[in-house]
């Protein structure tokens, strides 16, 4: 019976590296596409808004696990061959774009309408209105929720384990099966996630308190 | 390779049973989460320092680790400590604990938004502390946080799909069986993704009805 | 509003599903030779067949076969680790060139993939604690039995165990074994290697109760792709019986090299000529 030594811990840390890489890809991709989703969601044309709303409804109304499965098994049918991590990264990016898009839509609409009207009265164009007036304020308002979603996404990468991709959780399963010490192994895996997520969560709630204080 | 949804749809009775399993896990999980949420807030508002600290630790621990790790821990690791639960019970407890941690934070936010004056007015009217918590604080607080709670519970419904990893019976596990028989992975998962979408729409409508029925009295 | 949007979304996804029907570009043997790599699907945690060592490199009998196959073709083997249930989908959706992933040859699977001739034998059992009284299939009634999802253990027990058996399906052998060790199931559908791993975990506690079948494993390629199938069979003709084959069998499987069958009911080892 093997024990949990340095090689096992190193194997878990390599899994952790993949977890961080997947989170980073999903988050950066999600920010880029999420901004598009948010802007389309508040566009002036109704059909554009409907498309963005449907995109958000699909990703918020179905399990992340199914999104991973559909992308993982669906991309090859479209003639696109990507490695497992690529499929997972694409699914996470699409998932993140919907959630971040919805968070930022809320923030954009939370910027008082009077400002938009004032901008119109001053003859400021839509592009400049968004870039210089609305988005900077919206970004600040949305920061706590955005950080909250980052934590959600980091935890969500664990589902890549179910399609067989070896990130932290899957690495934990493999080590647990080699050593038959699930209590310790899943304890370590849980602790590693906690060490990553907790500081982010604390940061998020500090931002939230600061915003609430400023608003008073 | 062409698509063939026929072999998947031919298995509709199993898919419906799976949907039933998912709904059962989701509703049981929600009820447990709500109980944990209210209890947790009650403990945090009591004057017990230890109780408060335990609740905070619980919330942080659950909210900062993945559900998959939590459910593996309960199913595979707890038996070594003498606690053995079957897959369905494990799934409900894991869903309840997970949803409960979020519910505590959401409900607490609502409770803190209730002005102090309201409690004082209750005291002046001679209500007991329990009555004040239930009638003057909890109900308006629940109304205030109902939308957040509802979206958290939708998330909980979607999370049930992960219970397949511990062999619980629900929609995803049925899908994996059909996939195993037909090897029509994309068609299977595409179909049940649509079913999940319909399910979350159904639960959303259910919450809208509840909200209308339960919180009709005037707000101002 | 939200409800309406959701309905639109459902309608849109269903419409999309009707319109989707394109052929993917599968890698041919020529493509593989041009790239210098043979992409092999292997199991990640099912040693001695296939598994990843603690530094992540592929190990086990399947890995040895795959490396020999790649060398035979003048290529380098690149491994893609798989969970049990996504092996065949990974092949049919072109994630890998071939599967050498302890995939037992069955008539059902032959509907979805093209098998080569067999290269190894795997005996299947029901395994449980020594203290559990399980003489035969009928005695499984009312008991919980773990199986790895969509494997022959799953198929055989689902078909042949009494209807009162509570069959619990896990993602892979790893989770299945873990479920037995943690007492979440009373017995498991197993293969000939479970007992080694169980002995390592809890010496003297478990035993094979009765056999439920034997499986022969083949190299799987996509249906109709004669290039891969022919290459696999030609390779196995040369490899089986060679010193390298015997050495790999002895190193990983640690059993006598069995007589492998020339035919299996309902399965053709070669692509049918059209």
Automatic annotation (TrEMBL), chain A:
Transmembrane intervals: 20-40, 52-75, 81-100, 141-163, 183-203
Signal peptide feature range: none
Primary location group: membrane
CDD domains linked to this entry: TM_PBP2
A biological process term (GO) from this entry: amino acid transport
Domain ABC transmembrane type-1: 16-204
Record membrane topology: Multi-pass membrane protein
Gene Ontology molecular-function annotations: transmembrane transporter activity
Coiled-coil segments on the chain, per record: none
InterPro entries: AA_ABC_transptr_permease_3TM, ArtM/GltK/GlnP/TcyL/YhdX-like, MetI-like, MetI-like_sf
Keywords: Cell membrane, Membrane, Transmembrane, Transmembrane helix, Transport
Subcellular location: Cell inner membrane; Cell membrane
GO cellular component: ATP-binding cassette (ABC) transporter complex
Taxonomy, superkingdom: Bacteria
Family indicated by similarity: Belongs to the binding-protein-dependent transport system permease family. HisMQ subfamily.
Xref: PANTHER family: BLR6398 PROTEIN (PTHR30614:SF34), MEMBRANE COMPONENT OF AMINO ACID ABC TRANSPORTER (PTHR30614)
Annotated protein name in UniProt: Arginine transport system permease protein ArtQ
Automatic annotation (TrEMBL), chain B:
PROSITE patterns: ABC_TM1
Keyword Hydrolase in annotation: no
Entry-linked SUPFAM superfamilies: MetI-like
Recorded superkingdom: Bacteria
GO cellular component: ATP-binding cassette (ABC) transporter complex
Location(s), subcellular: Cell inner membrane; Cell membrane
Keyword Transmembrane in record: yes
TM stretches of this protein: 20-43, 64-83, 89-107, 144-168, 188-210
Any one biological process term the GO annotation gives: amino acid transport
Membrane topology: Multi-pass membrane protein
Domain ABC transmembrane type-1: 19-207
GO MF entries: transmembrane transporter activity
Keywords: Cell membrane, Membrane, Transmembrane, Transmembrane helix, Transport
Family: Belongs to the binding-protein-dependent transport system permease family. HisMQ subfamily.
Annotated protein name in UniProt: Glutamine transport system permease protein GlnP
TrEMBL record, chain C:
Record's keyword terms, sorted: Signal
SMART domains: PBPb
Pfam families membership: SBP_bac_3
Gene3D superfamilies: Periplasmic binding protein-like II
Keyword Signal found: yes
Occurrences of domain Solute-binding protein family 3/N-terminal (ranges): 37-256
InterPro entries on file: Solute-binding_3/MltF_N (IPR001638)
Keyword Signal found: yes
Signal peptide extent: 1-23
UniProt-recorded name of the protein: Cystine-binding periplasmic protein
Gene source species: Paracoccus haematequi
Lineage, broadest ranks: Bacteria, Pseudomonadati, Pseudomonadota, Alphaproteobacteria, Rhodobacterales
